[in-house]
Amino acid sequence: MSEPCPTLRRDGDEVVILDQTRLPHEESYVRLHDLASAAAAIRDMQVRGAPLIGATAAYGVALALRHTATDEALQQALDVLRATRPTAVNLHWALDRMRAALQPLPPSSRGAAAWAEAEAIRRDDAATNARIGSHGLAAFRTLATPNGRPLQFMTHCNAGWLATCGHGTALAPIYAAHAAGLKVHVWVSETRPRNQGLLTAWELTRAGVPHTLIADNAAGWLMAAGRVDAVIVGADRIAANGDTANKVGTYLKALAARAHGLPFYVAAPRSTIDFACPDGAGIPIEERSGDEFRLIHGVGEDGRAQRTRIAGEGAAICNPAFDVTPAELVTGIICEFGILPPDALASLQNH
Ligand SMILES: CSC[C@@H](O)[C@@H](O)C(=O)COP(=O)(O)O
């Protein structure tokens, strides 16, 4: 299987991230050197995707404790990082794990322990991705395709290398299937307004996985035309009853999949399930700046980065970043422990 590109790594007393705001046009890396730069990287979406947000926050704690690791410094780091983005629960999961590892220690031991725990979170995420990949692959092998044509998947947003520390969540089974020699093709929806689908296309291109970009609005038509076998997406927070928050537009795909009798899979680690949230109504949905909708970022014919305003001056814009797909539209949740129907999540509560 092709190696995922490194989204996040420690380099001495600093952290190096792949700046996703510059993709797919430019592959550039940024150094994080303190709490403020780690928090800004998450808030401004230089890193994004639920598991990667959590891992970056963990490294942010390590950066914050480099010089002072008092109780106050630890609490401040946790508070600042918790406030960066509201929907992905992996952020809180990772910060809770950091707090549990560090709080009992004397301040003099916390610095080294913070780096060790952040590294462990990163490694664990990659291992979890691999397990999601093999469970998903087992399910994919049961999907029959006529005349040996490729299995046609549809995904939304980016839930691959770029959203995690390994092969991804929704894309891990696709990478596993491709590596196992199954013929696959992926419909990649653009994912307006931030166009995370372009990130998915970038990494699938690097991995050599056949795929095609589509406008978000083309999804229903492709399903109606029999050109999709299954939809697979990631998640930012799954409530105890299986209601799933993911990138805005996921809900419409789930509705269309149900209307056309297609399986709709959510792939996510156990850390994305929030048992404190009984159902989707309790999931906080991030509202982001209207500028994400108003301004298109790209490169001009001269190859230089440019942005273009597409909405009329003064146009009112509503920009929810996520939506909630009700559990009854979800065929199965693929996690590191297997594939569960959404009403069976309680069995994971003590994992
Ligand atoms: C493995 S990532 C799953 C989700 O985090 C992903 O689908 C998503 O919605 C990412 O949103 P983003 O706003 O780009 O952080």
Automatic annotation (TrEMBL):
Binding locations of substrate: 48-50, 85, 196, 246-247
Pathway stated in the Swiss-Prot or TrEMBL entry: Amino-acid biosynthesis; L-methionine biosynthesis via salvage pathway; L-methionine from S-methyl-5-thio-alpha-D-ribose 1-phosphate: step 1/6
Site note Transition state stabilizer, residues: 157
Name of the protein: Methylthioribose-1-phosphate isomerase
HAMAP family assigned to the protein according to its UniProt record, in alphabetical order: Salvage_MtnA
Gene3D superfamilies cross-referenced by the UniProt entry: translation initiation factor eif-2b, domain 1, Translation initiation factor eif-2b, domain 2
Active site residues per record: 236 (proton donor)
Group of enzyme by EC: isomerase
Keywords: Amino-acid biosynthesis, Isomerase, Methionine biosynthesis
Task of the protein: Catalyzes the interconversion of methylthioribose-1-phosphate (MTR-1-P) into methylthioribulose-1-phosphate (MTRu-1-P). Also catalyzes the interconversion of 5-deoxyribose 1-phosphate and 5-deoxyribulose 1-phosphate. Part of a bifunctional DHAP-shunt salvage pathway for SAM by-products.
GO biological processes: L-methionine salvage from methylthioadenosine
Coiled-coil portions: none
Catalytic activity: 5-deoxy-alpha-D-ribose 1-phosphate = 5-deoxy-D-ribulose 1-phosphate; 5-(methylsulfanyl)-alpha-D-ribose 1-phosphate = 5-(methylsulfanyl)-D-ribulose 1-phosphate
